[in-house]
Amino acid sequence: MSTYLSQPIISTIKEKCKICYTCVRECPARAIGISEGQAQIIQEKCIHCGNCIKVCSREAKTILNEIDKLDTILRSAKKKIAIIAPSFPAEFTYAPYTRFIGALFELGFDHVCEVAFGADVVAGAYKELLLKDDKKSWIATTCPAVVSYIEKYQVELIPHLAPIVSPMIAMAKIVKLFYDEHSSVVFIGPCIAKKHEARISNNDIDLSVTFKEIKEYFIKNNIDWRFSKDREFDPPHSNTGGLFAISGGLLQTAHLKEDLLTGDIVRADGRINFVQALRSFKKEELRPKLLETLSCEGCIMGPGFAQKLPQYKKRNEMSRYLQSRMKTFDELVWTQNIIKTQGIDLGATFTEDNQRVVKPSELLIKNTLFKLGKKNSDDELNCGACGYSTCKEHAVAIILGVAENEMCLPYTIERLKTTISDLEYSYDELKKVKQILNHREKLASMGQLAAGIAHEVNNPLGVVLMYAHILLEQHGQDPDLAHDLEMIVSQSNRCKKIVSGLLNFSRQNKVLYEKVNIYDLTNHCADSIGVNDHIKIKIITLYCDSCAEVDKDQISQVLINLINNAIDALDDQKGEITITIDGNESTLIIKVKDNGPGIPEKIKPRIFDPFFTTKQIGKGTGLGLPVCYGIVKMHRGNVTVHSNTNSAEGETGTEVIIELPRYEQVIKRREEYVQD
Ligand code: SF4
Ligand code: SF4
């Protein structure tokens, strides 16, 4: 096959397609699949009816441009004959039709003839066929899209196709007989399927172009057809064959009438009607002697028109033209010309090209529907938004790989809702992480500041303490002086403690790991703190192994600080402090919980800030929690605080949760990970 013949006649312009599924819905052959989010034509299934072109508001369907081929034909030395489809008066409406013919001569055609004469000849052949065999049911169609549909999807009906060529092919043979058998014949009409018919026509037709294409070609050649020289069609001239362009025209030209009483002759035109009529014909619900059918509602509604006029306006234009032609009709000449055509072979053959697919199993369809969220028949809305008439049809198309789940609107809406809620969740999570990061950043810069101050204060403080001790040794006998010096020593020691706390908070101290039983250590710390009788301390261990490799002194400090905080939170009221030791193989968890009033929401973000305290002056340094935070971080652990101040939401109180890596190796691994 030449490259030209293998080129698709209709295709989708990807950039223009907005996947509205209109073309999927309107395609009678189900020849449009959605792949990679685009409506693509499955070429072997396409019958070239052009419905997709008519319905696409985005003009995303394009027809193969064959203007280059027309150029080549018109430049050749052969005789060039244009044959014009009967529907042309519905397109060339703004000037006498003779100007259109003149413009074609201007392009370089040697003859311009009307296909309507071919229609007269074909109508006669149909009449003869019916007379010859009046027992058989025939499908009469001049529409190549209907022929393709039968060859691909209703193959059982092929024997019922009237074996008569279309008026286009008949006319091509006639002009070759009348003028030159070696001439090039170009069909100009409203039909895209004729392009396919021309391709498979055994060289009867060299090229088929649409009215739209020829108008563009006039513009390309600077021809305004409305002002071309008036020319008449070359003979042979037609009788009523022009009626073929209108729905029912074949019957009228052949002097056959649709008979509603006997149902012997039936007409079915248009995308839905022709498919339904053929289905009924196959099921023998409909068995007339003759079924005349077209894929469009008459060729005047073909997809190759440039002008988008309403159907009845087009019919009106046709009637006016045909009436005017009848005035000059010469029956004698016409009959002589008809006689001349008698030797022409008008026989047509049809080839099966079965494109039907085996329907998937019910189970597979059910599973696919289930994935679309259609768990029972009530969920099958059959809304048609996907381009398929029923949810089942859509499911079958998905199984066959020509449709996607996302085409189902309710399914997509459901997915969108889930995505939106996922996004909302992620957004909230991100917000929380951002808050945590901001907080950590703040603590880190505070830590730097604290470390700087602590280092600067530590040395002079050491000097003060040393000299205070020396002076105390030298003048300890003087009670007044000794009292003052002891005051200096005790306050300096207090300052030293604060400095050490700051160094802990800023993670500047060394961690000396040793294996420690945290349960025992907790008991020891709790015992070392004096607690009033009305406060109960419960220590529970939930994990059999309470040991961890930690810095014993530092973790003691954490425990003491947390227990002291819990006691302070109970503020001398009756209450309970529960310390739980829990964990797993790699992590040890210490939870210190009190049932005090809880931490108010507005101060929660500040509880790890050094020197922030809600206690009375002199009762707390505001370093308890910051020190815990620093020590736990030095152990590569985590601190979290949960607190509830609203008794309506459950027991009030605060729980501080410390997570510590259980072994030094784990800590090292975490350190390496952090460094990486
Ligand atoms: S009608 Fe078809 S080709 Fe046109 S935009 Fe819609 S899906 Fe795309
Ligand atoms: S031309 Fe007709 S058969 Fe082909 S894809 Fe378009 S609508 Fe379907």
Structure description:
By secondary structure, the chain is α/β, with parallel strands linked by helices. The strands form six sheets. The chain has a five-stranded mixed β-sheet with strand order 13-15-16-18-17. Strands 6-5-8-9 form a four-stranded parallel β-sheet, sandwiched between helices. Helix 17 (409-475) packs antiparallel against helix 18 (479-505). The chain has helices at 3-6, 22-26, 51-55, 67-75, 97-107, 115-132, 144-153, 167-178, 193-199, 211-220, 249-253, 271-282, 311-327, 331-340, 362-371, 391-399, 409-475, 479-505, 518-528, 552-570, 624-634, 664-675; strands at 10-12, 32-35, 38-41, 61-63, 80-84, 111-114, 138-140, 184-189, 207-210, 265-269, 290-294, 514-517, 535-541, 547-550, 575-583, 587-594, 638-644, 653-661. The mean pLDDT is 90. The longest helix is centred in the middle third of the chain and has 67 residues, at 409-475. The chain has 22 helices and 18 strands. Helices cover 45% and strands 14% of the residues. The protein has five domains: 3-55, Alpha-Beta Plaits (2-Layer Sandwich), CATH 3.30.70; 81-343, no CATH class; 362-407, no CATH class; 431-505, Helix Hairpins (Orthogonal Bundle), CATH 1.10.287; 514-675, Heat Shock Protein 90 (2-Layer Sandwich), CATH 3.30.565. It binds iron/sulfur cluster (SF4) (2 copies). Residues 12, 17-23, 39, 55-56, 58, 60-61 line the site of one iron/sulfur cluster.
